[in-house]
Each structure stands twice: as structure tokens, then as C-alpha cells.
Design a protein that fits this description.
The protein is of the alpha+beta class. It folds into two domains: 41 residues, no CATH class; 32 residues. It contains four helices and three strands.
Length: 75
């Protein structure tokens, strides 16, 4: 099955349907603006790391709390 693509201002943004929700690719959005550094900067913020940890704890039954603690403490 082909992955759905959104076409916005001459940019292709991947769409991932999952259950009743649709998710868009932040990486595709950044690439469309030639702003890859935005993703790298966002991923290095302490608040982003904490948010990702909370999200994983809620939705990932295989979440590795020990490894996440190591990553969070390096930030």
C-alpha cells in the first residue's frame, strides 16, 4: 500500500494514518523549508526530550526506562 502524501506549497509531506488518527512528518516539513537544523535544535531541547519520554511511557509497552534515563541525563 502506498503511503499517502500531502502536497502543500510544492512540498511533499508524508501522512501516516494510524487507527482513527493521522500523523504528519515533521522531518518532511522541515526539509520543505530547507530548515533541517530546526529539527536538530528542537530534538536537543530538554523539554522535547521530556515530552518524548512521557509519550513513550504512555504509548510504548516496550519503552526502556533505563536507557531513556541515560539519554535524558546526557541532555
Amino acid at each position: 500500500m502506498k503511503k499517502p502524501i500531502l502536497h502543500i506549497d510544492n512540498a511533499e509531506i508524508s501522512l501516516l494514518p494510524l487507527g482513527q488518527e493521522d500523523y504528519i512528518s515533521l522531518t518532511d516539513m522541515a526539509h520543505s523549508q530547507m530548515q533541517e537544523h530546526i529539527i536538530f535544535r528542537w530534538m536537543s531541547l530538554k523539554s522535547t526530550i521530556e515530552y518524548i519520554g512521557e509519550w513513550e511511557a504512555l504509548y510504548n509497552p516496550d519503552f526502556n526506562y533505563t536507557e531513556f534515563g541515560t539519554i535524558r541525563n546526557k541532555q
